[in-house]
Amino acid sequence: MSRSLQRLRLLPRNICVAILVSYRAVISPLYGDVCRYYPSCSSYTLQAIQQHGVVRGIWLGARRILRCHPWAAGGVDDIPEPHPRLATTRAGFVLAHKEQ
């Protein structure tokens, strides 16, 4: 698959990543540390989108947010096994691994 086609295919995922990174930088600090789970719901959703794509990542994030309520026990809740063929930049954007 050509590089430009890979970038185009990952564009929706990276748009969602940009939105979540912005949320985490601007809005999330206003709330403080209130999440019952680790990682926080926004971090969980960010990781889920990075590793599983937009549709499944949003689905996993929405399920997590629905579980996060005052009566939840909380605790460590990691995303399902990540996709092995993807890498992320320091800023969080998703790249395809180079073929070897």
Automatic annotation (TrEMBL):
A family per Pfam: YidD
SMART domains xref list: Haemolytic (SM01234)
Topology of the protein relative to the lipid bilayer: Peripheral membrane protein
Asked if the record carries the keyword Cell membrane, the reply is yes
Q: Which GO terms describe its cellular component?
A: plasma membrane
Could you tell me the keywords of this UniProt record?
Answer: Cell membrane, Membrane
Organism's domain of life?
Bacteria
Q: Where is this protein localized, as stated in its record?
A: Cell membrane
PANTHER family for the chain: MEMBRANE PROTEIN INSERTION EFFICIENCY FACTOR-RELATED (PTHR33383:SF1)
- What functional role does this protein have? Could be involved in insertion of integral membrane proteins into the membrane.
Q: Which family does it belong to?
A: Belongs to the UPF0161 family.
| Full protein name | Putative membrane protein insertion efficiency factor
| Source organism of this protein record | Agrococcus sediminis
